[in-house]
Amino acid sequence: MRNSSYVSACLLAMSLFAAGCSRTEEDARIERLLSQMTLQEKIGQMNQLSVAGLTPDMEAAVRNGAAGSILNEVNPEIINEYQRIAMEESRLGIPLLVARDIIHGFRTVFPIPLGMASTFDPELVRYGARLTAQEATASGIRWTFSPMVDVSRDARWGRIAESSGEDTYLNAVMGASMVRGYQGDCSDSTSLAACVKHFVGYGASESGRDYNSTYIPPRALRNVYLPPFEAAVKAGAMTLMTSFNDNDGVPGTGNAFLLKDVLRDEWGFDGFVVTDWASAAEMIQHGFARDGKDAASIALNSGVDMDMMSHVFTAHLEELVASGAVKEKDIDNAVRNILRIKSRLGLFDNPYVDVDRAAEVQYNDSIMDAAYRTALESAILLRNEGVLPVDISRVRRILVTGPMADAPHDQMGTWTFDGQKECTVTPLVAIREMYGDDVEVIYEPGLTYSREFSQRGIAAAVAAARKADVILAFMGEEAILSGEAHCLADITLKGDQRKMIAALAATGKPLVLTVMAGRPLVLDEESRVADAILFSFHPGTMGGPAIADLLFGKAVPSGKLPATFPAASGQVPCYYSHNNTGRPFRGTETMLYDIPREASQTSLGNTSYMLDCGFYPLYPFGYGLSYTEFGYSAPVLDRQEYSPDDVIRVTFTLTNTGRYAATEVAQLYVRDLVGSSARPVKELKGFRRISLAPGESGEYTFELPVQDLAFYGLDMTRKVEPGDFHLWVAGDSVSGEPVSFSVVAD
Ligand code: GLC
């Protein structure tokens, strides 16, 4: 039988957070709960444990208040039991915060975040995140480790899959949309706490090798890597995760400047900070902490609130407080941050879930339709020599081939632990279901997985191709080749895929290549032999129907590249918003096989390019074709000169000059011609999706606050510098002619 102080403490905890209390009431009540907690109980709240099922040790940890959060359990009944132990058997009855990596869907898997970014449709991405939150919270999960907003400019890095690509603005817009989608308005139990990660600069891991050091100087940190995190924090993100990388020798988990000066003091973040998996203890490996005690001290004193799975807080903080190396008031602040989020999620009112709800919500029509629409909008048409869309009235026999044609697990991509492949619809299944009555569908995979070498398999596919009127080849990457720690030095198609594509092309039959992968790939050879290329960043559960509808013209591709596709692996990192350098590529330079044999030390151009692949990528950021064509008028500015507090109004006319109703992503780019530090040749500052019928025109306006042109210059203060600018409105980052304007000092 529990003693009276236990009962009073529980009643206090339960009463503290009656629904609907204001922020000040909430904080006051947290104070009262905090005053009841022992130091050990406080430290327990700062500890996150990974659990799988009910085990005596994990039950004991929860019962003893040694864990404030658990991750990786997804069974609602087991989650309810852990919550019951926390609420009824621990001394203070503080609910657990239950977490899971829900990166692009829970049960219903959406395209990987790089694919979501390809939609350039933040409202659809928000909506998908909202439905995902409903699906996940129905299992009792209330915290996801998403969105990942690491600007990624190196396709060798496996985790580019989880980002919104190479652009600061696009990562900021998509990250904020996901935060809003996951969290909703926090008015009910479908609110899923977001966790913005990985703070900061992880996407710049040197040589694209995961966990590697980054060397991001302060100005690039401010102008390129931090803004997406600031946008997510301003969107109300409840939590944030530190990054594995050391930036110039300082690990993200021990970076007080970032976690205190920037996150708390500048941005006013009032959520809590969790480490990445064991990253606190890994500061020992970094050579940044002497031992576990030192790591605990550094992490806590740098501003970390919760330790994911390194146990250094529970092992050392009590002793560190006793020695004075850590102040209890800092522990109190960490616990306040954690309790505040638990309160905002309503966990004190009711941490339990209706175990029957999961089955009702998961894979429901709304979320499956949202996954389909996201997959549809995320596919990018890279090439089409008149073969797409396939005219079903003119073909009798279709060959479906390739290792990704019927690969339900691989099609979901990385971070899809909870997606059930049985629910995934592959292109083969979709094509058979949708067109199997109209045409003969031959299926001959050729290769059974992306890394396979099989001349025999290729021969079988080629033989089948000779009987077909059109070849639909599905190539790409198995899911395991993408994601965390899965980096590639050579980003071309693996196994015998390239050989198979060449052999299929040699048949002379129309060859439509669909590529599903977790990163930009080098498709130089493929672009020479395939009549059409449709690229889909691992499209998820409904990828098959979406791709089938695009290939057969029921829908028209509208996706745009969120990351540059290099011309060669050695061109990486490559991205559109680069600086011009003092010797920019002119286009007249001598290339490798044009070098005269007698050339000795003569100049080949002395500009910034590669002898064997030139300067330009294969496909640029923002690029994507349609089945129709769009014509842009020159953008018209409402003025020629603006002051720093003005809003630039850019008007343009877009016309659908082709035969298909379609959607275009109009993009707004700006260049600051001269700055106190060199500025990129282009920066995306706006975009919008515009749908037009064949022959239809429309006039549209971007409104761009001049303050959006501010940057950290030579003196490291953020401001708009007066001067001359160029501005483009186009369908990608390389098209269109600029118009000029100036910003004049106030
Ligand atoms: C992983 C990842 C992080 C993830 C966490 C929990 O190592 O870096 O993104 O959320 O651990 O699984």
Task: List bound small molecules.
Answer: alpha-D-glucopyranose
Taking the sheet with the most strands, its summary is: 6 strands, mixed
- What's the Cα radius of gyration? 27 Å
Terminal CA distance reads: 73 Å
CATH architecture of the largest domain, by name, is Alpha-Beta Barrel
Derived from helix and strand composition plus strand pairing, the structural class reads: alpha/beta
Strand residue percentage: 15-25%
Which shape, going by the Cα principal axes? globular
- The total domain count is 3
The level-1 CATH class of the largest domain: Alpha Beta
Low-confidence regions: 1-6, 12-20
Give structural attributes.
single chain, 746 residues, alpha/beta, TIM Barrel, Rossmann fold, Immunoglobulin-like, six-stranded mixed sheet, five-stranded parallel sheet, 23 helices, 27 strands, 32% helix, 17% strand, binds alpha-D-glucopyranose
Structure description:
The protein is of the alpha/beta class. It has 3 domains: 4-357, TIM Barrel (Alpha-Beta Barrel); 375-551, Glycoside hydrolase family 3 C-terminal domain (Rossmann fold), CATH 3.40.50; 630-743, Immunoglobulins (Immunoglobulin-like, Sandwich). The chain starts with a helix and ends with a strand. Alpha-D-glucopyranose (GLC) binds at residues 101, 145, 197, 276-277, 484.
How would you concisely characterize the structure shown here?
The protein is built from 23 helices and 27 strands. It is α/β, with parallel strands linked by helices.
